[in-house]
Design a protein that fits this description.
disordered N terminus; two-stranded antiparallel ribbon; alpha+beta; 250 residues
Length: 250
């Protein structure tokens, strides 16, 4: 299947809404965080091919073993930002009962904020679909939307990105998380951390998708890491750390 554009660093595919023509609301849509790697590097191209493959074939996601380059002034990343401890901070996560709000820090896990207009447009499209699902399934009432993209500069054999679509409003945490989980994948409920609420994550085509919610916030987050150091057994702790970075007391 031909790639449908390589001009976005990270692309959120417009989901397909399927209707059988019968009575009642449309069938629940399947939402894909389709990643099309821009620029260079076989690793990013491999991710693009997997994302654009036929849903029926479900090829195994790539598992490259990149050789990590030495940080330099040209990469803009520190050594810690390119390693397994990129999301670790010296401060303890903020605890409390809320209410919580969403913020836009300049860096997350050492990655700079990079909100291109293309990403904003794709993020708002996905947010619209989440709102429809929430209205249909009773997970809550979003009032405002936040879309955030953090990604590494172009470094040979290395790429990381964290993409977040979030809402502020009124939510039923456990139900809201289930409503916007990616359909067709097995999510694991994880300890939500000191902010409370609900948190669940799943491996989605070699990346990690996590959803968390409190009574006032709801977020879906996709993490791509060619090194896989932030994923797998590390995802529970890193999801809480990322959450603490973008969610603050209201």
């Amino acid at each position: 299947m031909a790639l449908r554009g390589l001009y976005w660093h990270t692309r959120l595919e417009v989901p397909l809404m399927v209707h059988d023509g019968g009575p009642g609301p449309p069938a629940r849509p399947r939402r894909l965080w389709a990643r099309l790697g821009a620029a260079t590097g076989s690793g990013l191209l491999a991710i693009a091919v997997v994302a654009c493959s036929s849903a029926g074939s479900k090829p195994a996601p790539p598992h490259p073993s990149p050789s990590k380059p030495s940080p330099s002034a040209s990469t803009g990343l520190s050594a810690s930002a390119m390693g397994p401890s990129a999301c670790v901070t010296s401060s303890r996560p903020t605890a409390g009962s809320g209410p919580w709000t969403l913020i836009s820090p300049q860096t997350v896990c050492g990655l700079p904020l990079d909100n291109s207009s293309d990403y904003q447009q794709g993020g708002q499209t996905l947010a619209g679909d989440y709102k429809l699902l929430l209205s249909m399934d009773g997970g809550g009432s979003p009032k405002s939307t936040v879309t955030l993209e953090y990604q590494s500069p172009r470094v040979p054999n290395f790429y990381r990105s964290i993409n977040i679509v979030g809402f502020e409003g009124r939510f039923r945490p456990a139900l809201a998380v289930r409503v916007i989980e990616e359909e067709g994948y097995s999510y694991s409920n994880l300890p939500p951390g000191p902010h409370g609420g609900a948190l669940a994550c799943a491996n989605v085509e070699g990346s990690e998708n996590c959803v968390w919610a409190t009574s006032t916030t709801l977020c879906s987050m996709s993490i791509i890491d060619l090194s896989h150091e932030l994923l797998g057994a590390s995802i529970a702790a890193n999801a809480v750390r990322i959450r603490d970075a973008v969610e603050a007391p209201g």
